[in-house]
Amino acid sequence: MHRRTFLHAGAALGLDGLSPHFATSAFAAAKITPGAKAALIVVDVQNCFVEGGTLPVKGGAEVVPVINRLAGAFENIVVTQDWHTPGHASFATAHAGKKPFETTKLAYGTQVLWPDHCVQGTEDAALHKDLRLPTAQVIVRKGFHQDVDSYSAFEEADRKTATGLGGYLKQRGIRTVFVTGLATDFCVAWTALDARKAGFEAYVIEDATRAIDLNGSLAAAWKQMAAKGVKRIRSAEIG
Ligand SMILES: [Zn+2]
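Above: query sequence and zinc ion SMILES. Below: predicted holo structure tokens.
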């Protein structure tokens, strides 16, 4: 779905004066050009998930300038927001005797319990103030069903309820998604895995994400993503 533009890559590295052969064989990593059939998905870059928020991801705000830079390379941009009801089933406070980061059984299986976070309409749930995505076309809000969490931007945690994003992307002819945002090992990973499940080519742009890393969850997520054909790249590879 993407074109690899070797000469462009050489130019980007300041190798214009060198022969194309030298530039491609010796140094330049091929750049990935997203094109009209690709979308950037910016997952949950909200106040709740950065320092000062209710469920901060270490270094979470550091993804903002990286994503702002990446946005210029994409014709299609989707933004997501975790968007919970007050007293949502994923909150530890909704379960007597439970603390954040413990688990419980919900109707659809095991659920990690979180501090109250990203409650609909609160400043905590707003997108980060420095996020600059004027060309983004759609905001997908997820996790708004009281009894069902949704890490994934495609499918809620009951693994049955669709958010509609898969249909939206398909109807717009999009074949490839590049996933960024917070957090690598939860909402980013589940979004990338569900993108594969829905038939999209999927990349995670690693330096445009930060992780929670709860009990080895980051390594487990990368392993699972690799097994399902999610490609792991760096933002410098997009051009
Ligand atoms: Zn949540």
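The radius of gyration is 19 Å.
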